Amino acid sequence: MSQPIRAFIENQFLIEFGEDLPDDTDLFRAGVMDSFGYVQLCRYLEKTYQFKFTEEEMTSNILVSLQRIEEFVARKTAQAAAR
Amino acid sequence: MCGIAGFLHSSQASGDHPETIQNMLRSIAHRGPDGTGYFVDGICAFGTTRLSIIDLEAGTQPLSDASGRYWICYNGEVYNYLELRAELEAKGRIFQTRSDTEVVLQAWIQWGDACLPKLNGGYAFAIYDRMAGELILARDRFGKRPLFYTQGPHGFAFASEMKAFFGLPGFSFEQDVDQIRSILVQWTPLPDQSGFHGIRSLPMGAWLNVTRGSMTERTYGPLRLRTASGPASEGEALALIRDRLRQSVALRLRSDVEVGVYLSGGVDSAIVAQLTCERALGRVRTFSVEFEDKNLDESLQQREMAAFLGTRHVGVRVSYEDIARHFPDAIFHAEMPAFRSAFVPMYLLAQATRREGIKVVLSGEGADEAFLGYDLYKETLLRDGWNTFDEAWRRERLAHLYPHLDHYKPEDIAAITGLYHQFSQERAPGLFSHELRLQNGRFSARLVQGQGDPLGAIQRLIQGEPGYAELTAVEKAQWLEYKTLLPGYLLSTQGERMTLAHGVENRCPFLDPAVLDAACSLNLRFDDGFAEKRLLRQAFRDQLPASIVNKRKFPYRAPDAAAFATRPPEYLELLLSEGELRRVPYLDQKFAQALTKKVMGLGAAEISTKENQTFIFLLSLVLLHRFFTKRHGADRSAAASPIVRAVDLRPAA
Q1: I need a surface site. Which of B101, B184, B199, B651 has the fewest CB within 10 A?
Q2: Contacts for B573 with CB less than 8 Å, ≥ 6 apart
Q3: Which ranges of B335-455 does DSSP label H, i.e. alpha helix?
């Protein structure tokens, strides 16, 4: 699951995760995340993984780093599968 | 309006000074097609290429006082020159001409630097005191007119536009990578930045004293956003706005040639046009940019306003191809990396204006800065109070913030809420209001190799400003706008560099100290700031069509990357060819190529703001490198204007 998210972010922000940009980098602090890219990322995650962000989720620092996004999406999809 | 240039204590033999100063002035001949004049005395050489507007005959420059001790080269207009002249005459000063140039010279002789705060206008000038061996340079308080200087093996030199330095023997341009990184992140240069090594822009509201061996820069006109008192009621506030703007327009209609108006389709230029028509004797001429792209076009509103006022209107229709075709010429005139292509249509508008025989235009620039018109101010108010507002209120405000942006549409409001939550705390000290903008800028800054600190220069600027830390978040936003986007792009790249490329002078009634003072005395006192420019609109509600008064601010935009992707111009090879791109040594080749590939391959709707602006930055950097550093294709100036005055006081002459 993680590869498509990684690829989406790399393509959207023209970056490459690796030694200089580890997966847990705060993408806001690193100056990578902009408003358009952020919204594109939300749209992409909702569409690809078939869920809707709640208001609470949107204001709880989920979409900060690749690592946190992957963890969140894994949790979301696991919850959906368990239902 | 004019261009000025000169040098002091040159290492060059004085026999060559007349030729050098003429070469410098020739490079900026577009600024003043009506005549060139210069002065040389073996120590100083300076001159003017003049666009004559006041006292067409006797205003020829350089001009001296009766004793021949003081000489002046002057660019721009001081609108309150008649009042200053009366004051100076009362003190016994004798005048030989009717020009404002002479008023500035006499004011300097009478009051020294204390004269500068008295001048209301857009100007840059050089005064040479032969007896003291002293050269004074000064620039208006808002940075309407440019002035650059350089000190090096060639001595000290200055000019209205940097391209005049092409005329200095041995001078070479080298792009300053640290400054470029800073420009990319801020979107525009800071007041002292030029983008080139060894060239400094004299900041707005500053003056410089140069003698042999010393150079001192001082500020005379700090930006004041707080007033001691203000109107007691909304009714008084509206009357104050009308009164100050009426006076400001009246001052800016002082001219010996016809004055036209640029109509954007928005309320600011409509007010300026209305006040112009109120005073004009004949039928006023108005000019507008129209776009073939319907998403950007405002011709309906422009024509409606022209018809309402009964002006003789000219609309200049601009296509994608026009933007791609004229981009190189326009960026050559701008001399500065640009983040939008919207200056190119203004280049074409000025060309058409001049063709119609108009040398002076009024425009609405400065209204959004003074009366809090930009969405940025609302965004700042919202983020600043984020944690005190409830969910419904936040959503309601967010929905009205940037309705022209696709990603602020209702379906994405949840995502935007998450984003704003991230930006409700200050990350970059003192720059809270601009942090979302800086994120786009950080993407652009990746065009330059290496790390560097792109925010270092702007942090130093605000730390050095007395009282900045005490300003509110919105006042800080305003201060930053007055020091970056307004002078660094709107008044320069999109403003006077485009009009002066065709010998047209632009005047901005909203950039009058009395208008700013009025705005500051009433902003956020009678409303919460979320209905932009409410009081300004209210003040002119009865004089303008309701459709214009009620129209929401529509940012002036032009097609960016799409203009080049649709039918790529030949020079795009500079970006597409690896070999060409490698010629610009500081660029991050991999990032530049990836960006170009992405932008050229996507439809306009899929290209983000940050990608659009980074692409325009990249294109302008590469072209500026070619024109200035490599001097390829740099011979784009107009023919030299005829020599109308040559003053040669060299000892041997």
Answers
A1: B651
A2: B580
A3: 343-355, 367-370, 375-384, 391-399, 413-422, 435-445
Residue B554 has pLDDT above 90, yes or no: no
Q: Which residue has the higher pLDDT, B116 or B34?
A: B116
Tell whether the model's pLDDT for residue B532 goes beyond 80: yes
What is the pLDDT, as a whole number, of residue A3? 85
Residues in chain B within 8 Å Cβ distance of A39: 407, 412, 415-416, 419
Q: How far apart are CA B223 and CA B488, in angstroms?
A: 16
Q: How confident is the model at residue B588 (pLDDT cuts 50, 70, 90)?
A: very high
Give the integer Cα–Cα distance in Å for B586 and B57.
Answer: 49
HSE at residue B265, side-chain half, CA atoms within 13 A, is: 19
CA dihedral B405, B406, B409, B415 (to 10 degrees): -100
* Nearest residue of B to residue A55, measured between CA atoms: B414
CA distances for B160 relative to B27, B163, B374, angstroms:
10, 9, 29
Contact B1, B77 (CB under 8 A): yes
Integer Cα distance of B100 and B59 in angstroms: 8
Cα B565 from Cα B454, distance rounded (Å): 29
Identify all chain B residues contacting A32, using CB atoms and an 8 Å cutoff: 442-443
Whole-angstrom distance, CA of residue B368 vs CA of residue B364: 9
Three-state secondary-structure class, residue B239: helix
DSSP assignment string, B302-357: HHHHHHHHT-EEEEEEE-HHHHHHHHHHHHHHH-S--S-STHHHHHHHHHHHHHTT
Q: How far is CA B285 from the centre of its chain?
A: 23
CB atoms within 10 A of CB B476: 23
- Integer Cα distance of B284 and B278 in angstroms: 10
Whole-number Å distance between alpha carbons of B397 and B382: 8
What pLDDT is recorded for position B1? 61
Region label for B203, one of left (φ > 0), alpha (ψ between -120 and 50) or beta (otherwise): beta
Which tens digits make up the pLDDT trace of B396-417? 888 888 877 778 887 788 888 8
**What ipTM is given for this predicted complex?**
0.87
Which chain B positions have a beta carbon within 8 Å of A34's beta carbon?
Answer: 436, 439-440, 443, 608-610
Would you call A35 and B442 a contact, using CB atoms and an 8 Å cutoff? Answer: no
This prediction has a pTM of 0.95
- B 407-426 residues with CB below 8 A of A? 407, 412, 414-419, 421-423
For residues B332 and B627, the answer to whether their CB atoms sit within 8 Å is: yes
Answer whether B653 touches A (CB < 8 Å): no
Is the omega angle on the peptide bond into residue A22 within 30 degrees of 0, that is, cis? no
DSSP H or E run through B628: none
Interstrand relation of B259-262 and B360-362 (parallel, antiparallel or unpaired): parallel
Q: Are strands B285-291 and B259-262 parallel, antiparallel or unpaired?
A: parallel
Average pLDDT in the B263-284 region?
96
How close does chain A come to B436, measured CA to CA in Å?
7
